[in-house]
Known about the structure:
Layout: E1 5-12, H1 19-27, E2 45-50, E3 54-60, H2 70-80, E4 88-93, H3 101-110, E5 117-121, H4 129-140, E6 147-150, H5 159-168, H6 187-202, E7 212-220, E8 226-235, H7 238-245, H8 250-267, E9 270-279, H9 287-292
Parallel strand pairs: 1-3, 1-4, 4-5, 5-6, 8-9
Antiparallel strand pairs: 2-3, 7-8
Helix pairs in contact: 6-8
Amino acid sequence: MAKFHSGFVTLVGRPNVGKSTLMNRLVGEKVAIMSKKPQTTRNKIQSILTREEYQVIFIDTPGIHNPKHKLGEYMVKAAITTLKQVDVVLMLIEPDQRIGDIEQQIAERLVAIETPVILVINKMDTVEKGALLKVIDRYKDLYSFAEIIPISALKEENIDVLFESVRKYLPEGPQYFPGDMITDQPERQLVAELIREKALHLLQQEVPHGIAVEIMAMKRREQKDIVDIQATIYCERDSHKSMIIGKQGSMLKQIGSRARSDIQSLLGSQIFLEIWVKVKKDWRDSDFLLRNFGYDSKQM
């Protein structure tokens, strides 16, 4: 009888390098929200892939950056703390000729662990082969990576090669989660994140970083396949509130309309969604509000 293998795999890298897209590709399900805007992921998100002979738990982490507020500090800590808690580390980079300060910082953190680290060069489709080889040569001197694998998460190139490499490093172990479970995130959290994703897509550059979404109520109607959801989008300024609502509520309607489709797919039911917008000035620097929105560094 074949032995069962299981393990935890974390994805680390600077913001907007494609970690969430890659994790969704590896698992084959949309678990993490995606956006071209930096710092989309704020919390550790675990997604689970179970097969007959193995189970892999992928951990998508916030992008490592130089924080400017307490939320930023929480995000960086959430990413860094996973390095010593996993069986494999995937360090994602883009195929730039220059090694940036963030990549240097990550490499310095990796020196303190014995976990195998695979360097994943994402967006390989954006450069020619010669330029890609130069990137590989440059990073070979930065850290002793177990493997270096170029991929394109967006175009699903070399994903199977990366996955087979990850499997090699999985130790023998138990099945940590039920076979039909794809994430450890509660439904309320997933719904809140889907609403925030649509806001990220629709709002101007400076607004999304200052928003949080809280699900105030979520209840299935008796004898009807409808889930009533009440959500609040919090922002930091009155001017941002006006942008989120839009002229005659047009922006808020768009956010709700786009979120509704994904939430219905997630819950497998029709939904009735109501969204309000409130101002909480400087919430990203409030320990109390950060905990209230699920960003509690004490729980790491």
